[in-house]
Amino acid sequence: MKKLFLETLGCAMNVRDSEHLIAQLNQKEPYELTTSLEEADLIMINTCSVREKPVSKLFSEIGVFNKRKKEGAKIGVCGCTASHLGDEIIRKAPSVDFVLGARNVSKINEVVDKKHAVEIDTGHDESHFDFGEYRSNPFSAMVNISIGCDKQCSFCIVPVTRGEEISIPSDIIIKEVQRAVDKGAKEVMLLGQNVNNYGRRFSGNEAKMDFTALLQEVSQIEGLRRIRFTSPHPLHMDNAFLEEFASNPKICKQIHIPLQSGSTTLLKAMKRGYTKEWFLDRCAKIRELLPDAAISTDIIVGFPGESEADFADTMEVLEAVRFDKLFSFKYSPRPHTEAAAYANPVDDATASQRLSLLQARHTQILDEIMEAQIGKVESLYFDELQKNNRIAGRTDGGRSVLVEGSEELLGEFREVKITQAFRTQLIGELVSKS
Ligand code: 5AD
Ligand code: SF4
User: Fold this and answer.
1) How many whole angstroms from 362 Cα to the centroid of ligand 1?
2) Residue ranges per structural domain of the chain
3) Tens digit of each residue's pLDDT (9 = 90 or more) over 75-112
């Protein structure tokens, strides 16, 4: 059997794209996954271009692949960087055999045997494409509900790499979730760049349907116990959606709401479409309905023009919401984005200092949140075996808990008492058998 080395960078969407790549390849010819570059017949890197650093690392990585690969092995560059650099990748690195954009996953079998093939059309419509089956974690299934992104955030390259937003028809989504459930998944993660913008545009004549209605439909599926989704956009968080989130027992009480900045002035420059007050109001509404909901976020510091007062606004939101998880980044200018031409860049030292301050305060808050979990009894869904007779599961709020136990707990729910807390990991013990 041929061997595939596949490196996946970036977001959950890319992780799912990698599963689709494997599934599609396997329909033509079976591949076995390998972690050894030297053994691989096909080496692929599924790239991310949201920040500059991974993009600049790509070419040195291709050099390493080319040196270590066995005779005749192929190298493919897929994903977001493939989309926006296209044939420039082959011009700079002729050892690359093919380039496949983030919107063109379904074309993998068309490029895999074609020397220097480049497929990066972001107008390509994959919203009706029923991909083959491959899941790296069969217990918790990722399912796309839309492709692309219609927002024009001034810092973000994603609309350029993934194209226009198109919702996937709900019957395809339901069929896919049902298939995953039939194969043992009790949890599903619905994926999209802006999940709560679902239904704004289909490519065919599908009946109108919004994200709240989709959640209601998905939750009808028998055997499915938990629904997660990522990421919703703060702008589209209407009350109907938040009430469904709070009241539907299958929807996990964990929500990722990308803030980006706490300053209304900067949010305007970022073209985010909401204010600091709106963001705080939505978080307050969630906490009013669900005091224990886990809220996570993304924050960018050092966006052009960010003043001390703007940064203080971000710190204020951090203080008010007390995020469960924080993904924080220094602003990185990206090609094809409006902000790349903005005046008043923030110098790197200031941006680094702000990032440290933000992360340090978040860490203190997180330690308090984790400490407060000790003694709680949570329903855990076990989905990952670990070393030393331990098994990992997630609480409804998405926190990872390690418990002593073995294989027979995989894919099962158990009540667990939290006994110890570390910054990103809880430890617990089983309290019941059902
Ligand atoms: N610079 C830094 N961070 C960025 N992100 C997106 N674009 C940029 C950029 N140009 C961050 C945002 C987004 C997350 C996936 O990456 O916070 O939510
Ligand atoms: Fe995901 Fe955005 Fe990175 Fe593309 S650029 S892989 S959409 S995070």
Assistant:
1) 18
2) 2-119, 140-370, 377-430
3) 999 999 999 999 999 999 999 999 999 999 999 999 99
Closest by alpha carbon to 420, among 406, 399, 405, 434? 399
Instruction: Check residue 184 and give its pLDDT.
Output: 96
What angle, rounded to 10 degrees, do the helices at 308-321 and 276-289 form? Answer: 10
CATH topology of domain 377-430: OB fold (Dihydrolipoamide Acetyltransferase, E2P) (2.40.50)
Q: Return the ligand 2 atom nearest residue 193 CA.
A: 7
CB 233 within 8 A of CB 272: no
pLDDT at residue 432 above 90? no
- Ligand 1: residue whose CA is nearest its atom 13: 298
pLDDT bucket at 55, cuts 50 / 70 / 90: confident
The domain defined by 2-119 carries CATH number 3.40.50.12160: yes
> Which superfamily is assigned to 140-370 in CATH?
tm_1862 like domain (3.80.30.20)
Residue to mutate, 8, 9, 13, ligand 2, most ligand atoms under 8 Å from C-beta: 13
| Token reading at 21 | 């790549």
